[in-house]
Amino acid sequence: MESVSVFDDLYHQYHHAVYSNIRKLIRQEEAAEDILQEVFLALWENRQKLDSTRVAGWLFVTSYNKSIKYLKRKKRESAVPLVDELLHNSIPEEETNREEWHRFRVSMIEDAVNHLPERKKRVFQLCRYEGKSCDEVARIMDISPTSVKDYLKQSNRFIKEYIFSNYTELSLSIVPLLIIYLGQ
Questions:
Q1: Is 91 a member of any domain?
Q2: Number of structural domains found in the chain
Q3: Contact assessment for residue 32 and residue 45, using Cβ atoms and an 8 Å cutoff
Q4: Which of 35, 34, 47 is nearest to 8 (CA)?
Q5: Residue 129 has what DSSP assignment?
Q6: Is residue 25, in this structure, part of any structural domain at all?
Q7: How crowded is the C-beta side of 56, counted as CA atoms within 13 Å?
Q8: Which pTM value belongs to this model?
Q9: Same domain membership, residue 181 and residue 122
Q10: pLDDT tens column, 77-119
Q11: Lesser CB count within 10 Å: N end or C end of the chain?
């Protein structure tokens, strides 16, 4: 992802979905927009290190981490509990550990998504990674919007269960992330 045009394409493809994920955590529009810009700035700064096939997952985890970091900062500033204590240690302090943890979480979620049946996987990717609505996905896949919602719900449940059963040592720190992201 060396060129500005590739970056622009990625921005246009993912910015709605990334913004939507940030807004699930950050209830303030202006702060969410700032975080969105930080996420895409980080994408640009890391463009030479990234595998283009993993950009969607990278964007999700980066937006999550930046949102949590913002909430932690707001919590310290206002002394209002904004983030559940289970998330307290989810982001390591050292930069090298943070990058390693970030890559691990991206691969963990991608691992779970890759174990979904093909149709559910496609629905999940279109909704979560590309930010398409249930109606748009229904048209793309030639299925009913109700089926899309059902596939998405089943996919969310499967991903949570898969991660919980395959990454038991991390389940307590990762389950809150999944609950927020998957919305259940």
A1: no
A2: 2
A3: no
A4: 47
A5: I
A6: yes
A7: 16
A8: 0.49
A9: yes
A10: 654 333 334 344 444 455 556 677 777 777 888 888 999 999 9
A11: C
